[in-house]
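USER:
Try writing one entry.

ASSISTANT:
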Amino acid sequence: MFPRPLPLIALALLATSLAACGSSGGEEEPPLSEAALAAVGEDPGAPTKALAREIDDLFTQEGLGETRALIVMHDGKRAAERYAEGYNEDTLFVSWSMAKPVTAMMIGQLVGDGLLRLDQPAPVPRWQRSGDPRADITLRHLLQMRSGLEHTEAGDPPYESSEVRMLFLDGRDDMADYATAQPPEAEPGEKFEYSSNTTVILADIAARALTDSDQPEARRRALSDYLHARLFEPLGMSTAVPEFDRAGTLIGGSLMHASARDWAKLGELLRNKGSYRGEQLVPRSWVGQMVTPSPKSPQYGLQTWLNRPTGEAEHPLFPDRAPETAFSMIGHMGQYVFVSPEQGLTIVRLGHSNAAERKAMLQQLADIVELYPAEGR
């Protein structure tokens, strides 16, 4: 006797059951490589495999540019660390504009020492001539990028950029002289304009506060000694190398070098409000001002980018995916030291990404950030 054929509904159920036996119910993620798993330390503060996978994606996904170094610090401990081939913990990475918050920290120390005043006219000799409207520019205006000086950060063609001209063309030998010579285009305090040249003015002011000499070597030595004695050495930053122009002015807006671990130490210093191992290296109140929005730019404090919403689609960070109290040191081509105090988090990402790649890379970075809960610290 032949068996009776199964009803159609029974056949359908059988097919579903057989399919389930050979499937997990969804696409299985590819196994993690040894490099991905080795990047994550013990007790990283987030699920180990999830963190390893998000970091791996940052290094391997198309369209994000090249990630060369990544460090995740959680609650003061190194949760993860990874380098691309050819880079390691000893590699010195250029800051580009991540140098700006470092310059701001130095200015804060000088204010704390009583050598500079935040809300008094900036001590720039050229601006003190009778009738010069630039005499009303304060140190705070410079720190918040609202000096009112004429400036074009990114020009098209590039040689039209005020920054490019200062760094590489007619201003390169004496950058502060070039930057302070620019005419006003707005009233001091009335307009936000991001400007690397402005940070060079701050570096020149710092040098003048530390030495009366106009000799390049004396200026270079005074400022370098101060940075090392007051910031780099107490933090254990053994790799930090600041660059100076021919006039002895720190190129404080764009050219410092350090290892990824040393960049992480600066981020951790800011996360801890200027304190390191019980010593207040940068005044606590100053760090507070660095991460307070300026009147003309909710996404910017004192030389520091903030994760505050602006109401615009374009943003240097990701306020929809991390606490508004987060902030970052940001450098050209995708250098980031991202700090989220509420999450106990400091993330260093160093590499090379163009404008389109940076947008995608930032979202991948946010994927890592979102693995850590905000704890309302």
